[in-house]
Amino acid sequence: MTRTGMLALAMLASAWPGVAMARTLQVRADCEDTRRCFRTIGDALAIANADRGADAITLRVAPGDYREKLTISRDRVRLVGGGAARTRLHFDAVAQTAKRYHRDGWGTPGSATLTINAKHVSVAGIRIENDYDYPANDRLPNGDPAKIGNPQAVALLLDVASDAVSIARSELIGYQDTLFANGRRVHITDSLIAGNVDFIFGNGSMLIERSEIRTRRRFAPVPETPFESFVAAPSTLLDQPIGIIVYRSRLTREAGVPAASVALARPWHPTTRFPDGRYANPRAVGQISFIDRFMDAHIAPQHWATMNGTARDGTMTDVFRPQDARFYETGSHGPGARRVDMGMPSDGLGAIRPIRRSFFHRW
After folding, report:
1. What range defines the domain where residue 92 resides?
2. Which among 227, 184, 195, 252 is positioned nearest to 340, based on CA atoms?
């Protein structure tokens, strides 16, 4: 830990008898005594990230509105809000201009409001939102010089070093690319995930349970496709048996989302640099399973969609089919449960059961 961090913890310990053992930092937007609390989550997180102790550190965040862009880089951190309806963490970075925030200069992960790049991290009772004005950009006509071409705006990024992450009783809110699972395991329970285009995506192993997945509306017509939006875009590597599991959850829509306009998932093959060139990763054979869930009428009967990727000549002309991915569904009900047979397996429970159990052992 830095000298500044040690002094800060020492100051807190003197203000709160026993705080060194409790390892709890209080955050209040209206904090008046900075010896006893922090006015921003970032100030408290700077102390936690710098700490090298073995004990968990809890950041207890009072109800309030916190406009901050944060990264959790220390293992065993708990971020506990005062309820998703009352504690809001938000920022408005967008991929087009967010490259400076990412170590490799990548705009989409750089746009994240909250990045978790550590193990054994839990988040509860907080609304995490990317409030970039996607609707305003979507309304602009193609060819308008003010319209940006990369409107991805991530609310939560689970970065490459993340593992054993728990998200509970929280809300993840955005439009395109709300939740980016780019690490290892994450378990999301009793929460809301809202967005429109590929808003749950990545190559991590993720179990979403007892949650609501809400599709938000588009604000411009989408030509040359039967779909207006896509719920998920897994890019699971072929040697990884499980990608995204949506279990006993509800797929809903906000007002204005048309019936039969949204696909459950499409296979994302990220553009990757190889010794012989830069093209869509052929080993990113996405895996997703929808099990025992309610689907509202916005889900299209086709259920799955194709997705274009970068060909070896640099054009976006490679077409990846859902039939060639690892997509499964079983036990669906509701008006969106009817489906067109695309020759895809419908029951993935046999493959899922042993892997699902791995999410419940103690991390």
Report:
1. 56-357
2. 227
**40 with 27: CB under 8 angstroms?**
yes
Sheet holding 294-295, edge to edge: 64-67, 87-91, 127-130, 171-173, 192-195, 212-215, 250-253, 294-295
Nearest Cα to Cα of residue 247 among 201, 206, 288, 290: 290
pLDDT tens for 160-200 read: 999 999 999 999 999 999 999 999 999 999 999 999 999 99
Count of domains in the chain? 1
Position 362 in a domain: no
Which distant-in-sequence residues (6+ apart) come within 8 Å of 55 by Cβ?
23, 76
Query: Which residues are the active-site residues?
Result: 177, 198
Q: Report yes or no on 281 lying in a domain.
A: yes
pLDDT tens-digit series, residues 139-164: 999 899 999 999 999 999 999 999 99
Domain assignment present for residue 363? The answer is: no
CATH number at residue 88: 2.160.20.10
Please report how the helices 3-15 and 41-50 are oriented relative to each other, as an axis angle in degrees rounded to 10.
110
Residue 15 lies in a domain: no
Round to whole Å and give the CA distance between 221 and 239: 38
